[in-house]
Amino acid sequence: MKKIMTLIIGVSLLFPSGALFAQERQGARLVITKTDGTVIYGELIGLKQDSTLLIKSPSVPGGSIDVSEVKIIKIVKGSKTVAGVLVGLLAGGATGAFIGYVIGDSEPSGGLLSNSYSAAIGAEYGGIIGGLAGGILGGVIASHKDDILIEGKSQEQIKAFLEKLRTQARFPDYQ
User: Could you list the pLDDT tens digit for every one of the 175 residues in the chain?
Assistant: First the structure.
C-alpha cells in the first residue's frame, strides 16, 4: 500500500496542475497609425458597436481609439520559429533514422555499420538538418504583419474589416 501511494504521489508531481496552464486569452498585437501620424502599439481588448477600438497600451489614456482617427492598422503575428524547429527536428530525425536503417548493414555483428547504429547517425544528422530548415521556414514564412489601410475606405469595407478584427480581440463579444 505504501508503494502504491508513493507511486501515485510521484506521478502526480510529474504532471503540473491545470491551473498553471489556464491563461487569459490574449488579443491581437496591433500597431495603429493615427491620421495625425501618431503610432500606437498595443493589444486589442475589444471593439465597441460604435467602432471604437479598446486598446491596452501605456500611450493611450482611457484605452479607446475612434476608428475615424485611424489611418493604418497593422496586425503583428508572432514568429513560429520554435514550432518550426520542433517539427523539422522530428521529421528530419525520423527520415534520417529510416534512411540510416535502410542503408545500414543487416548483419547482426553489431559493428559500426549495423542497422541500429546507422539509424542513430541518420536520426542525428536528419534531425539537425530538419531542425535548421524548420526554424528558418517557421521564422521567415510564418511571421508577418497584415497592414490594413483604413483611411479612404468605404463604411462597408471598414465594418467588414472590424468584424474580422473583432474575432482577434481578447474579448470578442464585447459590446
Answer: 766 767 677 666 666 655 555 567 777 788 888 888 888 888 888 888 766 777 777 777 777 788 888 888 888 877 778 888 888 888 888 888 888 888 876 665 555 667 777 888 888 888 889 888 888 887 777 666 667 777 777 888 888 888 888 888 788 776 6
Positive or negative CA dihedral for 124, 126, 131, 133?
Answer: positive
Grid cell at residue 118: 546507422
Q: Which secondary-structure segment (H or E) carries 32?
A: strand 29-34
Count the neighbouring beta carbons within 10 Å of the beta carbon of residue 79: 14
Task: Render 42-58 in DSSP notation, one character per residue.
Answer: EEEEEE-TTSEEEEE-T
Per-residue CA distances from 166 to 73, 142, 173 (Å): 13, 22, 8
Rounded to an integer, what distance in angstroms lies between the CA atom of residue 49 and that of residue 142? 32
Where b means 16+ CB within 10 Å and e means fewer, 47-68 reads beeeebbbbebeebeebebebe
Torsion sign (Cα): 65, 67, 69, 75: positive
Instruction: Round to the nearest angstrom and report the end-to-end CA distance of the chain.
Output: 56
CA pair distance 153, 32, nearest whole angstrom:
16
- Cβ neighbors of 8 (< 8 A, separation 6 or more) are none
